């Protein structure tokens, strides 16, 4: 049963001893350590902070009702302000993480990928090797009729076709990724969240 | 249940008018979504297409679909109703539902997208022995999804017949069958791509409907929140208490306060362990897109819950608690009744039209959520249990996808049958239970998998079963199942029929929860309705104990290194 991990196509797991060695080496590299440190330095304290902040709200709602019922202005009481602040803090944390991630973590991740000792080896290690390439399921026969689709949908279709075409070897996911990413990156909507979320 | 159906439903005068418009709008929504599903089916070629929509959705599209998957009829109608009847306490729910997304954003979304392929178990089993961990994760996925599914479908039966003003059991059964058949069709034919588009359409409808109602309500109070609150408190007859925490979660003994904490914990930790939410992260091309889609979802869901605050208080102020309670004691019709009132009141054409629009939004909401749940459970059945447990990873993609379709059919059929049998029960607790199981069984193993190097197979298996079993057993021992009156659950006034059902005289004070599953006079051994406060620590502790008691294997370090590098950098991502 222990050998299950190396079963082809079963998961993303276990690429075998060679790749594991590469990953071990990579996980010890200064570039990766920097990335892990930067990631954990942000998400762990932030998670602790918002959980405590939320539990404080729940505990006060249960145990400090007199305080929560104090009116601030008009009919607006502390409980309502506290609740609205939970919304605000959630939006702010999401915005802050988006900023931190795109400015700090993403370049660091690229640095790790760049120094990967057996970068080529890692990529070929991608275990998605469909035994039945181009599975011609029943619906596939109707594929030609799909031309009526809008722009983004054709993009989706291309990505799907690419995945099929990559077939058994699918040797360069890294090349494949950016082109698949286009529908989201190219679309103006996809880029907005960092500015929008703060509102 | 009976008085709830026999009550004069909504606007008697405009009944026929709004029913016709509602049916037309329902049919329109169904036609559009069926067309989308068939279109999507023509593009489904690979397993990645079926399970993950070809990973080709944009961050914004997926953000909408996450909203469509997450905002159930329970959040729309239920929370609006909670605001309308219990005032402030609705906020305790909606805030928990929103803040929970930060757990998904910071700790789960990107790493899951980078290291998994189709299901939650892909990540849990990444560095473990495949069969035991996938079996446990598959079972927990299916249990959580079916609990949630039952709650939605039983609710749908009651709700749609209520909105259409049809009475009797036949209408409810037909509604359940039609909803079930549509959901099976979306999932088996359209796969993830079809389901995602149904969820996107629903999210746009829900947000537009809610926005129109919110602005309409606010405009009646010159956009002054305080004035609206004043009017709501005034009309509720409860005064300032209506605007303060405690009307619903108001009992002051120790257990009810702990129950509130328990609910809060399950809500905030459950979302990031819901399998139907997690698989949505696979539908975008990169981890970056997964992160941005969660940010969109946070914006959309946050805006929506802020609007339900206005809608709920608006219903309390404009319709009034008495009229709402008369139509449905649970308050589920508060939003549709508010729509009718805004449109011009009972009997007017405007009222009928707006009521029909909001009813159609509710219908779309139910369909999109049940489709997402069916997809999650059938994917896990095919990819985890069939391909990796039964076939030991030797199934072809084609067989796997065929099995996923068959599983969707079978799970859908089971859900329909169970919902028909359960239609007379109060199953609202199943939503809270699904969140509790997700928080107790799935989240601990997911977090330990991603962040704890030493974590191993035994830890994962103990964690999942420990959390799952403790949550379910606790609920079976709680006032949900045993309704006898106690300090925590004081005796309630019984309707004659309920009293007869329970076998007690109508003036008896021995019943605390007349809707209890097993007995309404036996006192519950455990006074907590929400198991999270106990079962979440049990899940974490069981996972830790399992890990520590199992021996170390040298190859595990390499597997953790691989998981960590891939999860954080996206190397080798699917």
Question: Can you put this structure into words, describing what you see?
Answer:
The complex is a heterodimer of chains A (199) and B (574). Chain A is mainly alpha-helical and 199 residues long. Chain A contains nine helices and two strands. Chain A has helices spanning 17-27, 30-63, 65-68, 78-115, 119-124, 151-166, 173-185, 188-191, 193-196; strands at residues 71-73, 76-77. In chain A, strands 1-2 form a two-stranded antiparallel sheet. In chain A, helix 2 (30-63) runs antiparallel to helix 4 (78-115) and helix 6 (151-166) packs antiparallel against helix 7. Chain A is elongated, with a radius of gyration of 24 Å. Mean pLDDT of chain A is 65; it is low at 1-17 and 124-199. Chain B contains 22 helices and no strands. Chain B has helices at 2-6, 15-41, 47-52, 59-70, 73-86, 90-115, 120-124, 130-164, 169-220, 225-236, 254-270, 275-278, 287-318, 321-327, 334-342, 349-390, 397-422, 429-451, 457-476, 496-502, 532-549, 555-569. At the A-B interface, helix 1, helix 2, strand 2, helix 4 and helix 6 of A face helix 3, helix 4, helix 6, helix 8 and helix 10 of B.
Strand content of chain A: under 5%
Q: Given the helix and strand composition of chain A, which structural class is it?
A: mainly alpha
- For the record, give the distance between the C-alpha atoms at the N and C termini of chain B, rounded to a whole number: 49 Å
* CATH class descriptor name of chain B: Mainly Alpha
Rg of chain A (C-alpha, Å):
24 Å
Mean pLDDT of chain B: 89
Our count of helices of chain B gives 22
Q: Report helical residue fraction of chain A.
A: 55-70%
Structural class, from helix and strand content of chain B?
mainly alpha
Q: How many helices of chain A in DSSP terms?
A: 9
What number of domains of chain A? 2
